[in-house]
């Protein structure tokens, strides 16, 4: 990482979270959204899936504590738009995600939070997930700029959505200030919309 | 790339600038706010000392945590966390000059029910809300997108989101629906055909005779579940049905102003020769009622079909999902869903919590009673819906049948209030998601279906074909219906 907002590279040990179509209700069950801040969300990450009869089970998040790179399968984060889900992952320690594919709102939320979410094919993902199982202390690096992931002796090419890459590398993933600076252009746009009355 | 579609036109009209990331800065004309996903965003605004840029384009109500039992709606709410969320929303909206439809307003309800019925949702708009079911508003011919909390901060502070323009897939729904088959069945059919991630990267334009024949409530139900098909937005071109619905609603201009506005609405319709990235046809002619058998909204069958074998699916991911679904639902491949035991019947939500939904279900319930072993909840999508149902006497039908007639909220769709499944209860539900744990219990089981099918399941205590209740049989039902008309 270079500079405050520039995210060119993230790394650390990995955690495999296998399964397709993992929805945000699983990642962060709705009953834990009754808080007005995101501060405690890490405590609720995959709350139900990680427990049997109230006790921690062998869910990967229980076995790979301290991991920074989550490795997921296809259509991860589908369903509800709740940012609580990637917030919980981030606060638990996830700095980057490698996977087959993401639901769009989830990916957008990752971008808003500065979490690179890169993709590769099924076989490559499964190999990486197995490698983590065998190498729980092994380092995984996501090179956002060069679209590469390296672990052990292996380096793989990955893909990252153009806008996400640009935003992370250039450090412009927090879009509020950027869009705020276009206030006058917004006024021009709204002037042509018959349903928008001037807000004074 | 698409060209000349409603999506292209509305996008262009709302595009403010191209951002350095390559995304577009898109103006949001209607921002809907609720208590769960907004407090953190208002907090971020305070941290940055920013004001709400367009309070007049912003409307709030409370839905997710809203208690649905009348006595539990007195303040302060007994649930401390719910009270804190509701208080925060009241404070945030009043400090920022945002209209808030609270319990006392008489207009409280689910954002996606309230905004359409008040005429806030109109053709040619961009609509955003921190809720994935914002696609609902596309029923009017608008672009409705669900956003995360950081994007809510963006909309509050700038009136805009940073967004990628999507591909447009036109879905022609051919045919005519038979009696006892509804909009809900159409969208379940579409998701069955195209899959839960089939819409990723796309917005869906729903068209064709089966769509055009739907009333606005039906169109809202179809667009609502776009997200369950992986599409972030879905829309239907506006037509006379749309304009008739809008006329006379609170936030819709009247008289000459209405005609002027209508010119704008007409101007954003997809051109006859519009170009689409993709066109698919879905045959809804004579489909049977559909329902889910599994744990995602794409695991769907027609009621006359049997539960599939995992091997029936080509894709590895679908086979694995099927195995997991069979296990969770405790069903066998090849079995019929007819007769599947039901413990709870839940009618409501942003998908099917509108007056026509309750009216259709009431037709099934007339002269019947809810099975003794079934807990049945009717939860209007808004207080406006509740009042209209009560004015028409629809509530009486529900109450007489043994349903609990509740106040408005999201309720058991996601169980953020007191309405929740317990243990491994099976719920016949008119909601939109059958994910594991969605209805409040990790062992709970959800079967998604139309409101009429929920009513039939409530009466039978098991999954049943609602059409058997609609036959001309003077006994008021078909074979197997024990509680005949009294």
From TrEMBL, chain A:
It comes from Halonotius pteroides. Belongs to the LeuD family. LeuD type 2 subfamily. Residues 8-115 form the Aconitase A/isopropylmalate dehydratase small subunit swivel domain. PANTHER family: 3-ISOPROPYLMALATE DEHYDRATASE SMALL SUBUNIT (PTHR43345:SF5), 3-ISOPROPYLMALATE DEHYDRATASE SMALL SUBUNIT 2-RELATED-RELATED (PTHR43345). The keyword Amino-acid biosynthesis applies. Pathway: Amino-acid biosynthesis. GO terms for molecular function: lyase activity. The keyword Transcription regulation does not apply. Residues 1-20 are annotated as: Disordered. This is 3-isopropylmalate dehydratase small subunit. InterPro entries: Aconitase/3IPM_dehydase_swvl (IPR015928), AconitaseA/IPMdHydase_ssu_swvl (IPR000573), IPMI_Swivel (IPR033940), LeuD (IPR050075). Keywords: Amino-acid biosynthesis, Lyase. One of its GO terms (biological process) is amino acid biosynthetic process. Heterodimer of LeuC and LeuD. NCBIfam families: PRK01641.1 (NF002458).
Automatic annotation (TrEMBL), chain B:
The keyword DNA-binding does not apply. Binds 1 [4Fe-4S] cluster per subunit. It catalyses: (2R,3S)-3-isopropylmalate = (2S)-2-isopropylmalate. [4Fe-4S] cluster binds at residues 350, 410, 413. It is an enzyme of class 4 (lyase). GO terms for biological process: L-leucine biosynthetic process. Residues 8-461 form the Aconitase/3-isopropylmalate dehydratase large subunit alpha/beta/alpha domain. InterPro entries: 3-IsopropMal_deHydase_lsu, Acnase/IPM_dHydase_lsu_aba_1/3, Acoase/IPM_deHydtase_lsu_aba, Aconitase_4Fe-4S_BS, Aconitase_4Fe-4S_dom, IPM_dehydratase_rel_enz, IPMI_cat. Its cofactor is [4Fe-4S] cluster. It holds the Pfam family Aconitase. The keyword Iron-sulfur applies. Keywords: 4Fe-4S, Amino-acid biosynthesis, Branched-chain amino acid biosynthesis, Iron, Iron-sulfur, Leucine biosynthesis, Lyase, Metal-binding. Its EC number is 4.2.1.33. GO terms for molecular function: 3-isopropylmalate dehydratase activity; 4 iron, 4 sulfur cluster binding; metal ion binding. Heterodimer of LeuC and LeuD. Belongs to the aconitase/IPM isomerase family. LeuC type 1 subfamily. Catalyzes the isomerization between 2-isopropylmalate and 3-isopropylmalate, via the formation of 2-isopropylmaleate. This is 3-isopropylmalate dehydratase large subunit. It comes from Halonotius pteroides. The gene is leuC.
